[in-house]
Specification:
With 690 residues, the protein is α+β, with helices and mostly antiparallel strands. The protein contains 24 helices and 22 strands. Strands 1, 2, 3, 4, 5, 6, 7, 8, 9, 10 and 11 form an eleven-stranded antiparallel beta sheet that branches. The chain has a seven-stranded antiparallel beta sheet with strand order 14-13-19-20-21-18-17. Helix 14 runs antiparallel to helix 15. The longest helix is centred in the last third of the chain and has 41 residues, at 494-534.
Length: 690
Amino acid sequence: MWIPFLLQANEADMQANGMKMSAEDIYSVNQSSLKDAVVLFGGGCTGGILSQEGLLLTNHHCGLSYVQNLSTQEQNYLENGFWAMSKEEELPNPGLGVTFLVRIEDVTDQVLGGLEVGISEELRDAHIRDRSQEIRTKVTEGTSYGARVVPFYYGNEYYLIVTQTYSDVRLVAAPPRAIGKFGGEADNWLWPRHNADFMMFRVYAAADGSPASYSENNVPLKPKHSIPISLKGVQENDFTMIMGYPGTTMEYLPAAGVELVQELRDPVRVNLRAKRLRILEQVMDAEPDMRLTYAKKEAGIANAYKKWRGRVMGLRKNNAVVVKADEEKIFQQKVDANPEWKEKYGDLLLTFDSLYQELAVAQFMVDYFNEGGNIIEVIPFAAKISNTAQIFSESDNPDERMAAIDNAKSQGNRFFRSYRADMDQALMGAVLEGYMEDVPLELQPSIFEVIHNQFGGNAQAFANYAFQVSPLVNQDRFDEWIESFEADSLYKDPIFYMMVSLNQNYYEYLPTYQQYTAAVDSLQRIYMQAQREVFADKQFYPDANLTMRVTYGKVEGMEVRNAVQYNYYTTLGGVIAKHDPKDYEFEVPDRLIELYEAGDFGRYGEDGELHVAFIASNHTSGGNSGSPVVNAEGHLIGLNFDRNWEGTMSDYFYDPNLCRNISVDIRYILFLVDKYGNAGYLLDEMELME
Ligand code: ARG
Ligand code: GLU
């Protein structure tokens, strides 16, 4: 996860590993370079620019919510795919933007300069905020640029990131769900993989090339650089490099921090998400029309759920906490042997231990609220309606009261538009059961006294009762009730009571949570500085923070466990072998089976086979989805979309022997565009290296 503008430091190593480019070819402010063809797509994915007409490649799962919005039951592009046959047929996506990187600069001295020694964290933050604001204003004034000043190495360094965002981005191509998301949640986070996780979009600009909101008069963006595409394929041990926007990694935490995630945070969140998923998937199975409605919701819940499960397993199996603790012993010895370090860093690890201990319970309760109690949809809704009651109890003024009721009505209209009471009722029961299983009695919110005393400890029975009587879960009941609103009737409502109870409990723990996370964060800044100082001959890359990074490695399989080897690529034959017409996640469209049987892979094939996906040892993370994967020459060979199950721990504990990134082979994508979608005209604008 190297920083593009400092890549000079890696150039020799990259070239020794086979790279034919220079650091300047990858990142340059003077000439066009690879970084000009890599964008932040939407809020948290990456995209690559493939042509001089702004054609953009990203993942299917990155474009999914946009295609969901463009689809109806009758015209279901998500299910059936979409192929624009000309630019006129491309579909605009309100709310979608892509952001180019203009340049990065180290502004640490400007941001941190003038800080007094021993200054409080609050004053330090204020100083940094003010300095950052000044810098941003100076670079953006009178331009269409955006700018951020971002902390790196936990606030030991600050970089200015200048960007340009385009907001007219149109859908060009999406394979059908059964190809783009083949294998579904079952295959997610796993190797071997057989889906073509891609979509294509096109970026439009005003006639002069500047960013503009959607207009018929806009023209395809002419980018500074577009990535040539290699049809030569990939061989094991080939050099690979990925540029993209990894979101969050935490490689430099102390053992205590990893233990908190592994033993407390992830297991709790996994448990709660399993409950949510069960309810969602039951509905989607019973009512296939609901699949379109819940596509994004399910993918989102399932994705983190499965990653956390894999991560806990990986961290435990590889003794991450022990390994970290052993490294800390070496750190401590070195620190103790040096009087200056001992003075600055001598107690640091001990302090971490006690801070994490103090944090644990509050973290647990806050997680339980955010992933549990407050996920029951009617709970935050009830909190909004409580404002109406508040106004009623504070004011007799009929106008104010009327306005409060109107406001509640529009809240209701918004809420009930997508509300499914049956699902929320099941969820309430399940989450309350979760509290009873996971949360020690003395920490439980007061609502559980009611559940124990009046419902025999049966949480679902409480939920059933609440949904039977509450006006907050049914639009007709709500509309009637709100017309003649009385604060008292709200205060007697069981769901309202539950909302208050959950919130009281949450606000009881929140201050402790905030206090100790803040303390942990500022200590982490010092620990980061200490690690760089004490292990001075090691090259530290900063943890991911949704800024552009470069990672390199090679195409390689791996030994998963004794005697079991992962091959580095999969094929279309493997897709067909997984085909199961009775399993929604594993159906293969007839047309793809026909193309397979015809065996006419043309220039996309290799030895009579069509390669589908490959793995490589590039260190990636969430946000790297949609990142272009290039070879030694900087030509596109794949599209990054996932990691292997054994390696999902990599955000905390990267191990090059166990961690692989997964990419779609670019030849499979071109094959699908050309032969499946009959949109081969798109290849005319690409630069293909045969
Ligand atoms: N695991 C990949 C990533 O983290 C893909 C997620 C989308 N796919 C899915 N089946 N939910 O984002
Ligand atoms: N699928 C992930 C994403 O959406 C990328 C894979 C990963 O987490 O490594 O960004």
